[in-house]
# Entry
Amino acid sequence: MKKDWIKEMRILVEGSFLADEPLRKHTSFRIGGPAELLYIPKSQDDLIRAIHFLDKNGIKRYVIGAGTNILVSDSGLKGCVIKLANSLRGIKVIKKEKQKVHLNVMAGEPLRRLNEFAVKKGYIGTEFCFGIPGSVGGAIAGNAGTRLGEMADIVKSLTLVREMGEIETIERERIFFSYRECGIPEDSVILSAEVVLRDGGRDVSIKSIEELRQYRKKSQPYGYPSAGSVFKNPKEDSAGRLIELAGLKGLRLNDAEISQMHANFIINRGKADAKSVIKLIDIARSEVQKLFGIRLELEIRLLGEF
Ligand code: EPU
# Structure
């Protein structure tokens, strides 16, 4: 790796450069050691140039959205962490046909804003997003969803930045979404998405949103930092139900705790570290495996060395 790569990159691209930046400031878990460099691009072109520069120089890159579904190791990340949330923003109507409306949404737009935009205009299709934190890019990358739907239902195409900063647009037929997975190539960064919604029906949206809000309020822990559901639900079952049956609700290691309210959430009661969270994950996994013969798969993404 180049020695003075940060200096060199500063000359080539615009944006915010934060060296040795604690990533706990950028994750909903409030956990994570320092990034050698946290870079927030100023524009789409800066992002493309930055990726070209990093790839050309063999510098490891990580891309995060709003940091709501990740666990970063306590030792942090070597290389460059590119944060897209709140930097690359924008929602534009690109066409209307029959009862459908096509939007272009930039990856850094908060998912909440996309939902608000749609509800205000009377476009149907994003209601399931209500209450899901994070950015549009992150939500697509993890095919975020609820019982009402998932990102795969509304994405028509994706524009990606590939290795060396190459741009590629892929249509829905070639995006292999599955449960909490997007299936795009490893090296790609989601730049923007074409989203298709249905026109007409503010009342429908508001009713589903209200139902979801009530449901979440009583079933998910909101008062403490977390990364949402820790495990994917196994086929036709619920990770939370199995972990609860294993008697693990409330199990605490330092400041990390398996939530009393929903066993598939781990909450940070103050100064939790990634190491304690990983221990709780291992315990939940091995107990559920022992008792029910089911291997729980992680939904949250681990970044760094564990
Ligand atoms: N349950 C328990 N004990 C628990 C938690 C849940 O018995 O500690 C039971 C509930 O009583 C319920 C069942 O498990 O009958 C399913 O739970 P819930 O309806 O709360 O949904 P979930 O499967 O835990 C999924 C998504 C959530 C999403 C909700 C609501 C996954 C892994 N999680 O949770 O998404 O908000 O449905 O639609 O698919 C996320 O992905 O980060 C997330 C929060």
